[in-house]
Specification:
- The chain is mostly helical.
- It has one domain (4-150): Four Helix Bundle (Hemerythrin (Met), subunit A) (Up-down Bundle), CATH 1.20.120.
- 81% of the residues lie in helices and 0% in strands.
- The chain has helices spanning 4-26, 31-35, 41-63, 70-97, 100-111, 114-150.
- The longest helix is centred in the C-terminal third of the chain and has 37 residues, at 114-150.
- The radius of gyration is 24 Å and the shape is elongated.
- The mean pLDDT is 93.
């Protein structure tokens, strides 16, 4: 299992990747696509992808300072997955309404994060398992203490 200090640099890389994606997405102009018959949903996807990329950069950067926070880790992972899906759709639009080279460049940039996403997934699964184990130990100890406290006391022995 990766330790928190080992996953922190990975999270910083994910944050940087989100910032690079946001910058690249900021240079895409979807309006001409729509003028040439593309669906308005491309505009919505582009706006959402841009927001997700910025949020990914922020949340991954914050998580790097407290990597043992499972809920924040899952938030980062879900943002990555949502962003990959939206970028896949935008990539198709770029191929059709812009240039295949631009679509390939976006796909290449998106793919740069694959190894880090996998490392984060493994870390989060291991973190969740570790936290479950800690919870079981705490529950077991709580049950033991409760049994001791609620057990009938034995009367003192006569000598």
């Amino acid at each position: 299992m990766l330790n928190p200090w080992e996953i922190a640099p990975v999270l910083e890389e994910i944050s940087g990747h989100g910032a690079r994606l946001a910058e690249r997405l900021g240079h895409i102009n979807v309006r001409p696509w729509i003028d040439h018959g593309a669906s308005e949903t491309y505009l919505e996807q582009w706006q959402s992808a841009t927001e997700q990329a910025k949020a990914l950069a922020d949340t991954a950067g914050a998580l790097a300072h407290n990597p043992e926070k499972l809920s924040a880790g899952l938030d980062v992972l879900f943002r990555i997955q949502a962003l990959e899906t939206m970028i896949g759709s935008l990539e198709q639009g770029m191929r059709k309404y812009q240039t295949p080279a631009d679509a390939a460049a976006l796909a290449a940039l998106s793919a740069e994060n694959g190894a880090n996403r996998s490392r984060l997934e493994r870390y989060l699964v291991n973190l969740a398992a570790d936290q479950e184990q800690q919870l079981q130990v705490m529950d077991s100890e709580a049950q033991r203490c409760r049994a001791l406290l609620t057990a009938p006391s034995q009367p003192p022995r006569k000598r």
